Amino acid sequence: MSIYDFQATSINGKPIKLSDYSGKVLLIVNTASKCSFSRQFADLQKLYESRREQGFEILAFPCNQFNEKEPGSNSEV
């Protein structure tokens, strides 16, 4: 089994097959907008912009399971 065997749900509720990203370099990030680490989002954006031509993708998954750091609904996030 590999990462490409998994599927996720987009913030819009649509299924995302990780196999669609086969052949790309993936950085999978657990995000939370109220977390102190959210200030790193700008650096993640810069990293993506500098490497996207080489097939680099960032998949960010908002999560509210750790101290209520992402309390918004999908539309608010």
Short synopsis of the structure:
It contains 1 helix and 4 strands, in the order βββαβ.
Structure, described:
The protein has one helix and four strands. The protein is α+β, with helices and mostly antiparallel strands and 77 residues long. The chain has a single domain (21-77), classed as 3-Layer(aba) Sandwich (Glutaredoxin), CATH 3.40.30. It has a two-stranded antiparallel sheet. It has a two-stranded parallel sheet with strand order 3-4. Strand 1 and strand 2 (15-17) form a beta hairpin. The model has no long low-confidence stretch (mean pLDDT 80).
User: Assembly state here?
Assistant: single chain
Question: What order do the strands of the largest sheet run in, or round the barrel if closed?
Answer: 1-2
The fraction of residues in strands falls at 25-35%
Helix-strand string: EEEHE
Instruction: Give the integer mean of the pLDDT values.
Output: 80
The residue ranges in which pLDDT falls below 50 over 5 or more consecutive positions are none
Rounded to an integer in angstroms, the radius of gyration calculated over CA atoms is 14 Å
- Strand segment tally: 4
CATH topology: Glutaredoxin
Distance between the termini: 31 Å
CATH homologous superfamily title = Glutaredoxin
The CATH C-level class name: Alpha Beta
* Tally of helical runs: 1
- What is the count of distinct domains? 1
In the CATH hierarchy, what is the architecture at level 2?
3-Layer(aba) Sandwich
**Helix/sheet category:** alpha+beta
Principal-axes geometry comes out as globular
Largest sheet: 2 strands, antiparallel
Question: What's the helical proportion of residues?
Answer: 10-25%
